[in-house]
Amino acid sequence: xxxxxxxxIGGNAAGLSAASQVKRLKPDWEAIVFxxxxxxxxxxxxxxxxxxxxxxxxxxxxxxTPEVAVQERKIDLRLNCTVVxxxxxxxxxxVNTPAGTRTERFDFLLIxxxxxxxxxxxxxxxxxxxxxLKSLSDTExxxxxIDEEKPQKCAVIGGGYIAVEMLEAxxxxxxxxxxxxxxxxxxxxFEKEISTIIKNKMQEKGIILNxxxxxxxxxxxxxxxxxxxxxxxxxxxxxxxxxxxxxNTELLTETPIQLGIKNxxxxxxxxxxxxxxxxxxxxxxxxxxxxxxxxxxxxLAPKANKEGFIAGINICGGKEEFPGVLETAxxxxxxxxxxxxxxxxxxxxxxxxxTVKFTFSSRSRAKYFPGGGKLNTVIIMSKTDxxxxxxxxxxxxxxxxxIDVFSAVxxxxxxxxxxxxxxxAYSPPFSPVFDTVTLxxxxxxxxx
Length: 448
Ligand SMILES: Cc1cc2nc3c(=O)[nH]c(=O)nc-3n(C[C@H](O)[C@H](O)[C@H](O)COP(=O)(O)OP(=O)(O)OC[C@H]3O[C@@H](n4cnc5c(N)ncnc54)[C@H](O)[C@@H]3O)c2cc1C
Fold this sequence. Notes:
The chain is α/β, with parallel strands linked by helices and 448 residues long. It has helices at residues 13-25, 47-52, 66-72, 136-149, 161-172, 192-204, 301-315, 345-351, 403-411, 416-420, 436-444; strands at residues 5-9, 30-35, 76-79, 82-87, 92-97, 100-105, 108-111, 115-117, 130-131, 153-157, 176-180, 208-210, 215-221, 224-229, 233-236, 238-241, 245-247, 278-280, 287-288, 295-296, 329-333, 336-342, 355-363, 374-382, 388-396. The chain folds into three domains: 5-116 and 246-315, FAD/NAD(P)-binding domain (3-Layer(bba) Sandwich); 119-243, FAD/NAD(P)-binding domain, CATH 3.50.50.60; 329-447, FAD/NAD(P)-binding domain. The chain is built from eleven helices and 25 strands. The structure holds flavin-adenine dinucleotide. Flavin-adenine dinucleotide binds at residues 9-15, 34-37, 44-45, 47-48, 82-83, 112-115, 133-134, 162, 248, 251, 282-283, 299-302, 304, 331.
């Protein structure tokens, strides 16, 4: 192929991974990254831990600095440049730059625009005291506010991972911290049993739970935020809205580029859109659930990084496939590790009429070995063929990464009889002789 011009919209996980691959494989091609902010390639996943103070320096969250991107990777980086229009037919972008609006021509385009915070029908505007957490700039705003205003009482609205992590962050900083959530259980991604364990741990750590509260609006008034529900007004010094994310694809809604679930960009296994020279990767894209084979929207970092990597290779002429995901995720709330993979019970029942769910708890280490704890396991299984369809864990931090074994088992469509015979490692400091995976298989066999 002759020298090509590759334009990339978005300079974080997916965009930078792709740009790096393009320059690695085709050093003489242009790889131009337009990033609307001033940061690139940062660990969004580390932001809650920086706010809590566990990671003291914001700079430690930056994986690749602009200098490294430009000087070592030879990426043409355009910071503070917002792409405002995409013309797929003419192969052109309109870009607002600090020097004015420009038209940029491309041979290949990668869309890697990530997410925007979801507001769940709550009326609010971001103010000095009402935050969302999406970028390093949001992180800086929250920390500056805490340092300058010395707030005492805050609320986190939401019930998913980011809400859980931010409750720890604010409580860890000594604030009176409230959770406000519209359901009695946390987000649906957690099975009820796991949600209950997390809520109990929250109470143990002093979080005040305001559950079943449907919020109508947030107002900033007299140096406070009023959280208005149907029945009451509650006052806080500041509020973080963490009610989930949507794909950031407004830029594309007027174009013929096809969108799918939640308006995420539809891509094939090679990460091409309905234009074969336009690719999309990361949190802005739809993917496939590996169990159901149906479209899914799963905005998580491993998917974004791998899709960016693969899209970069394919733009250069490769033919690598990204098969899809299981929604495998792990987080923590203080000393409680929380992990999940595969289908929830609700999703599994729609997919397989013979779904059964069972729960058990085991020790995370041999019972005589110091330092272990209770590891709680939820298994979703098909009684028809004994396949594990989903698994969730809550227990000591060093025990819940076992979720990755469940992920491998589910990906490989293994039935409990085969899982039971897997040659898994054992030693007392790490697990009992039958660890949670072997136990899950042993218990699952009873349903066959
Ligand atoms: C607080 C928090 C904690 C998280 N923790 C975890 C975790 O523990 N594990 C996990 O797997 N995932 C986690 N995630 C999710 C993870 O950060 C994302 O999956 C990942 O960052 C997605 O990368 P991306 O490149 O697709 O999108 P993004 O990181 O959203 O990057 C998109 C980039 O595009 C830029 N952009 C958007 N529109 C335009 C435009 N029109 N013009 C120019 N630039 C544009 C944006 O400024 C942004 O820099 C967390 C996210 C948050 C917010």
